[in-house]
């Protein structure tokens, strides 16, 4: 740690919906916050945004994230583009290495998510026939022909779930042997689902870029509007493990109701944690983590023990920094009515 290190109360690592919402709450609750984001991520891949109330479907993931980043900056948060390579220290004094720079913070929030495992090509474009979120995108395929790609237990279960939305569902094994149980095999084959063994050898797309059909090794061509690859995911957990944060049996980070982990001063939110991988869920987790951090960091009220018979010096209020006060002043001025209003 050096004198030149920028110092914050909260450092959020990861700029997806969970991390951005955490930074929004901590900043608006008066805590100097930096959000460090390497770019990319699952939300950035979205061609359209689904299931976020108040956000229309044509909003892309990148547009959503850009707007959110501008929003937190307007309240006084700092944003840094880069990848955190290491975190050292303990509650009250963590040091985060980002390239040749470093930042210090009293608390750290990990929002690094996970990466979906992609099957081998040929594949349609993500969001144009290749979809990773059943709860986000199933509605799009009502009465459409759908594939589920994979050979795991999850692939079989998702295929059966998709019958709630369409009568045309195939499981594409792509030459792999099924790994689901015998019980699941009996269950799957009792549903009106075709299990296709052959590998995919070609793909056809329409003028709009959407998938139209796959070609298979046996010479058949089957039409699909889109589908879901089910090959698992990898947690982006290098920092989690370096800090010694406890994980669940499934690999997610174990957290309490406000995102606090087993390591004091370290929180986790979003796809790193157990539960549904949905933008509104991630936002809710970010909000609760931000509020939890406020409980931990706020200056007032002072306890009777802290007061020790004395009283609070009025000059010590308000507790927010000059930077956040200045951001609030700028916002007040920009939102003030003009003579023409």
Salient structural properties:
4-stranded parallel sheet, FAD/NAD(P)-binding domain, alpha/beta, 9 helices, FAD/NAD-binding_dom, 23% strand, 341 residues, single chain
CATH class of the largest domain: Alpha Beta
Number of structural units classed as domains: 2
Q: How much is the average pLDDT?
A: 93
How do the helices and strands follow one another from N- to C-terminus?
EHEHEEEEEHEHEHEEEEEEHEHHH
Major sheet characteristics: 7 strands, mixed
Whole-angstrom Rg: 24 Å
Spans of at least 5 consecutive residues with low confidence: none
Please name the CATH architecture of the largest domain. 3-Layer(bba) Sandwich
- Give the class from helix and strand content and strand pairing: alpha/beta
DSSP strand content? 15-25%
Domain FAD/NAD(P)-binding: 8-286
Keywords: Flavoprotein, Oxidoreductase
Protein name: Thioredoxin reductase (NADPH)
Region (Disordered): 305-341
């Amino acid at each position: 740690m050096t004198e030149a290190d920028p110092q914050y109360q909260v450092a959020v690592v990861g700029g997806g919906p969970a991390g951005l919402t955490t930074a929004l709450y901590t900043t608006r609750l008066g805590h100097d916050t930096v959000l460090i984001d390497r770019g990319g991520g699952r939300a950035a891949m979205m061609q359209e945004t689904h299931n976020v109330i108040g956000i229309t479907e044509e909003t892309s993931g990148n547009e959503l994230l850009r707007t959110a980043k501008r929003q937190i900056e307007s309240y006084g948060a700092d944003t840094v583009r880069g990848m955190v390579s290491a975190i050292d220290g303990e509650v009250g004094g963590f040091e985060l290495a980002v390239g040749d720079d470093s930042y210090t913070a009293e608390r750290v929030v990990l929002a690094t998510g996970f990466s979906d495992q992609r099957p081998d090509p040929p594949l349609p474009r993500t969001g144009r026939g290749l979809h990773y979120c059943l709860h986000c995108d199933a509605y799009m395929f009502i009465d459409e022909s759908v594939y589920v790609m994979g050979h795991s237990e999850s692939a079989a279960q998702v295929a059966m779930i998709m019958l709630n939305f369409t009568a045309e569902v195939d499981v594409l094994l792509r030459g792999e042997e099924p790994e689901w149980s015998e019980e699941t095999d009996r269950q799957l084959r009792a549903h009106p689902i075709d299990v296709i063994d052959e590998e995919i050898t070609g793909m056809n797309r329409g003028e709009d870029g959407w998938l139209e059909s796959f070609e298979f090794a046996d010479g058949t061509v089957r039409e699909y509007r889109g589908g879901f690859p089910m090959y698992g995911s990898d947690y982006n957990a290098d920092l989690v493990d370096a800090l010694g944060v406890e994980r669940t049996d499934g690999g997610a980070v174990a957290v309490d109701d406000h995102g606090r982990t087993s390591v004091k001063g370290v929180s986790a939110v979003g796809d790193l944690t157990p539960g549904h991988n949905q933008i509104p869920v991630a936002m809710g987790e970010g909000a609760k983590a931000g509020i939890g951090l406020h409980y931990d960091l706020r200056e007032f009220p002072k306890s009777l023990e802290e007061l020790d018979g004395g009283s609070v010096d009025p000059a010590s209020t308000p507790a927010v920094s000059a930077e956040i006060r200045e951001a609030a002043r700028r916002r007040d001025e920009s939102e003030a009515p003009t003579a023409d209003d």
